[in-house]
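Here we describe the complex-level prediction in full. Unlike the single-chain runs in Section 2.1, the two entities below were treated as one system.
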Amino acid sequence: MKKIKVYIGILGLDQHELGALAVARMLRDAGMEVVYGGRFNLPAAIVKTCLEEDVDVIGVSCHSWEHLFYVPEIIELLRQRGVTIPVVVGGSVITPGDRKKLVEMGAAQAFGPGATEREIVEAIRAIAGGRDRT
Amino acid sequence: MNPPMTRNHTRSGIPLKDFYTAEDLSGFDSERQLGAPGEYPYTRGRRPQAEGGWMQRELSGEGDPARSNAQLQYLLSQGQIGLDVIGDSPTMAFLDPDHPIAAHAVGTQGVSLCCLDDYRVLYKDLPLDSIVVSGSLPPAIAVAGLYLVASERGVSPDRLRGSVIQAPFYAEDCGYAIQMPFQLRLRMACDCIAFCAREMPRFHSFVEDTYFFSEAGLNGVDEIALGMVEIRHVVKELLKRNVPIDSFAPRIAILVNCGMDFFEEIAKIRATRRLFARMMREEFGARDRRSWSVVITSHTSGLSLTAEQPVNNIVRGAIQSLALVLAGVQALEISAFDEAYRTPSPESHRVALRTQQIVYLESNVSKVVDPLAGSYYVESLTDEMENRIRERIREIESMGDPADLAEKGWFRRFFEQAMTEYAAAVAAGTLPKVGHNVFRISEEEDTLLKEIVEGKIEPCRERIEAIRRYKETRNVDSVRLALDALRKRAEEERENIMPYVIEAFRAGATMGEIGGMLRLAYGWPYDPHGLVESPF
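The structure predicted for the assembly as a whole is:
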């Protein structure tokens, strides 16, 4: 069976990297392949990388609030290219209010600071499994 | 039911006994290990007087310079005596607010500062000759701004007090990347310190910030070991340039982290003062006593806070600040209770300041210097921390020249591993965090103070337009001349570039332009993100 492939990167100028590295580790431990994008990523560059790498899920992290602006941009860029890669957002600054907002904006899932390792891994698996790869 | 207490060691892995006795201090020479407060090796602190306490302050800055000026005025009116200003993420990344990658981050996590006008507004009506102005900002620019504004107001720079952080080794790897080559970062740090030693002798131009990189989840031994490696290297560089040790060593400070391991944090700080004193006197031959006694400034750990049940963070801040006061720090900042979610609100700022004031005025703990001295446990832990830190420094330095290690990415890998391990320990529950991985409550129940943490600081978008206008209306020819001169100086290895940075700032150049010119001088692209062309 093909490994689930997930992009993990940090948005904008946020330099808090602990969460992104932690999630990358969790997903690798769960047998997934991680394309680690590190810091300083804007939507266009993320979408380009994700298309080239043919990932199943795009995971973006932000410890500041730039995700509220960048996530809809990523989704719009994907739509313009006619692809439907699910976008997942994680970050310890994401409040319950933000989670609701991000899902309304089209994110497949948003994880706040209370999300456990198991919740994250299971959710990514379910989201990747639901992806139409035709 | 309480979860089992499985840990019988400190956060750094030092094994603990149930109790300590005189036997644990066999061979302990109090003369050699302690001395009196205010005496070599300064284990017991810089000064023998308890009076005056410590500088109580809170990290601040948000929005544009005018809004931050109002915030600083408010904090001073609330009894704060020193200021510590932090830049927003574009400022910390050495970028102007009109850079495309800055669009949604201007003013949200600190203040947006990029030109001399900004510093004029930031410091408006502040008594620069009597307050202490610290900057968690790109140091060369923060010094240029303060120097020029003070000069304009008739305050002689040699009267200025305050500090800037120098982090040439680790900034790029975790938290404060400015995307410049290592050799340029090191040179800028040395040039800034040498300049201040001459022009601003009361100003602490070399704060070794072990706080920000230890927030990668480092333990106390690694935190101080890495800090000492950086200090030693920068000092050696300055000596190579014939800057006399006693001209700058009295103005070195260490900004330490303070997590939740109460006694280890106290022991760490006492051991740090001793290590520093021995290094300065025995290794570098400093003669001035002030060169031996390092200033310790401190910030309580943001990483130790939880997003869940944020009111508990007030308790964490109180415990950590008590540890810091018992250790005898010179300045203290508490991570505000809402910092897990946001840039501090005025409410959380006030609680943090009040926490310090309660410790200071009500608890009486700071009436006696170094009250824990002589404790079997604290002294044996201090010795053990010192030994382990020394051993760790030796291990790191034996791998090669620290400059090579930095350039080859060794520290980057070290921080990545530390972050991953820390997060794994929290996820596994081996590092307990009450409310997060133990004693959780449901989101519906978790409502106390939540209206404050849900609040956000909107990006200051009008700032972007204001800087664009500023760039169009200034005298472009004098900016170009000053930036050309800066670039030329930067291309020559030996010259101190600080006067040229100051001149460019005075002429109206912005921080982003100065950074771009310095990158070009070192053969790097003007814009590290590849989105902006050099306008000059």
